[in-house]
């Protein structure tokens, strides 16, 4: 996440690492106000920024400045949908106040489905949530106010401060990283409000939980004469919940086995994990080798494991394809496993033996070499050629299908460079 040097409002609902920026404005590119809004706004523009008679809005010292003279109000709104519309977001801006006097809910910040064009205040039924900043009789002081529940914060702040507004519209409990670095949870349809490292409000009700986080607006209301609000470094990130927060994914090698271990902090709508493998000798061609069922919805850590016995080389890559119940998926990072050194040529006894009709033949190669693996009948006639080519060092498993052969004893022979070994197998139908 972006660290802002100045104080800012920092809204976060986190599960996973979506962190897709959907709006950013630091007012550094121009001192002309009209450069920052448009009736059909680009990604980083407002729809309208303006003020009524008696108040002004300008860009000064690389910030948006709202000033009240003896009357009037100011606003900056983007009453146009984000694309995509987030169900959780990070909403940051630096804020300070000077001049003026005491005023309850002097400036408000709203997020919702429709935040109203122009100076008009949003209709409560159209917004998801809002909060206000009140000013005191002392210049530069402000207090956070929870409008929905008509409650004022317990602390008074001066100068610039980091305010965190956590909003959750994902449909389930979510986890987010608080300003003090702690991991906090928030219920669906609720909000947290922090100032610096102090949480002023915890899991408070929002205005209309059925509304979306599609649009936003800053607007003044009942502010005192000579008040100046400075807003800067606005950054809004889409932090909609991902199906799962994967916190670790490792591989452990023991002889010819690779054990994959992974854990999740939280899960939402998690159907499960498709385990995929690729040989480094074969490029990045991934194959599905297994599936592990997920926990569905969980707000507590979960641990998973999967054991693989790869063949055809010594170095392999693994990844997880996490799939949710509606088919959406995300890939994990890649972990690499290197099998322990193979020190000798070896042909193992087939398994199972006796068999009907399938059996597995395994062998190891300490070096890259030409390999032939053939099956013979009792007359020393070749009835099946299972391998004929160059192979890398490593362990190999080959399947022999005896469906087309009668019951009886057979022999299989491995030729690997100068190494030759023969073993007997028994087909019983």
Describe what is shown at a glance.
The protein has 429 residues and is mainly beta. The protein contains no helices and 32 strands. It starts with 19 loop residues before the first strand and ends with a strand.
**Roughly how many Å is the radius of gyration?**
32 Å
- Low-pLDDT windows of residues: 1-19
- Total number of helices: 0
The secondary-structure class comes to mainly beta
The domain count comes to 3
Distance between the termini: 65 Å
Oligomer category: single chain
Helical fraction: under 10%
Q: Looking at CATH, which topology of the largest domain would you report?
A: Jelly Rolls
Q: What's the count of strands?
A: 32
Shape: rod-shaped
Report the mean per-residue pLDDT as an integer.
Answer: 87
Note the main sheet. Answer: 8 strands, antiparallel
Broad CATH class of the largest domain: Mainly Beta
Name given to the CATH architecture of the largest domain: Sandwich
Percent range for β-strand residues: over 45%
What does this structure look like?
The protein is an all-beta fold. The chain folds into 3 domains: 219 residues, Jelly Rolls, CATH 2.60.120; 95 residues, Immunoglobulins (Immunoglobulin-like, Sandwich), CATH 2.60.40.10; 82 residues, Sandwich (Immunoglobulin-like), CATH 2.60.40.1930. Helix content is 0%, strand content 55%. The chain contains no helices and 32 strands. Strands 2, 5, 7, 8, 9, 10, 11 and 17 form an 8-stranded antiparallel beta sheet that branches. Strands 19, 20, 21, 22, 23, 24 and 25 form a 7-stranded antiparallel beta sheet that branches. Strands 1, 3, 4, 6 and 18 form a 5-stranded antiparallel beta sheet that branches. Strand 9 and strand 10 form a beta hairpin. It is rod-shaped, with a radius of gyration of 32 Å. It starts with 19 loop residues before the first strand and ends with a strand. The N terminus is likely disordered.
């Amino acid at each position: 996440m972006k660290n802002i040097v100045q104080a800012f409002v920092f809204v976060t609902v986190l599960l996973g690492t979506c962190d897709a920026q959907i709006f950013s404005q630091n007012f550094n590119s121009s001192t002309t106000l009209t450069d920052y809004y448009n009736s059909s706004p680009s990604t980083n523009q407002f729809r309208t920024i303006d003020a009524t008679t008696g108040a002004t809005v300008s860009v000064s010292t690389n910030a948006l400045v709202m000033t009240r003279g003896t009357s009037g109000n100011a606003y900056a709104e983007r009453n146009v949908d984000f694309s995509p519309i987030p169900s959780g977001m990070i909403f940051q801006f630096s804020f300070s106040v000077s001049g003026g006097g005491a005023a309850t809910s002097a400036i408000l910040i709203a997020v919702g489905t429709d935040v109203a064009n122009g100076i008009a205040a949003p209709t409560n039924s159209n917004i998801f949530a809002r909060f206000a900043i009140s000013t005191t009789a002392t210049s530069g002081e402000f207090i956070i106010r929870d409008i929905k529940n008509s409650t004022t914060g317990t602390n008074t702040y001066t100068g610039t401060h980091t305010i965190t507004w956590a909003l959750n519209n994902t449909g389930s409990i979510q986890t987010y990283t608080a300003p003090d670095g702690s991991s906090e949870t928030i219920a669906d349809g609720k909000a947290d409000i922090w100032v610096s490292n102090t949480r002023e409000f915890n899991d408070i009700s929002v205005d209309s939980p059925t509304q979306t986080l599609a649009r936003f607006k800053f607007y003044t209301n009942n502010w005192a004469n000579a008040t100046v609000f400075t807003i800067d470094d606005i950054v809004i990130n889409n932090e909609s919940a991902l199906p799962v927060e994967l916190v670790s994914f490792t591989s452990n090698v023991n002889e010819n086995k690779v054990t994959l271990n992974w854990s999740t902090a939280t899960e939402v709508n998690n159907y499960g994990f498709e385990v995929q493998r690729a040989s480094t000798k074969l490029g990045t061609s991934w194959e599905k080798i297994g599936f592990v069922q997920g926990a569905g919805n969980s707000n507590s850590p979960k641990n998973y494991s999967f054991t693989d016995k790869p063949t055809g080389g010594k170095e392999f890559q693994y990844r997880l394809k996490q799939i949710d119940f509606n088919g959406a998926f995300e890939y994990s990072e890649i972990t690499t496993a290197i099998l322990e050194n193979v020190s000798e040529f070896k042909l193992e006894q087939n398994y199972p033996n006796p068999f009907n009709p399938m059996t597995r033949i395994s062998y190891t190669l300490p070096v890259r070499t030409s390999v032939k693996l053939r099956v013979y009948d009792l007359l020393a006639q070749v009835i099946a050629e299972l391998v004929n080519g160059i192979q890398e060092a490593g362990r190999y498993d080959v399947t022999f299908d005896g469906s087309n052969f009668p019951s009886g004893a057979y022999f299989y022979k491995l030729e690997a460079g100068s190494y030759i070994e023969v073993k007997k197998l028994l087909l019983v139908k």
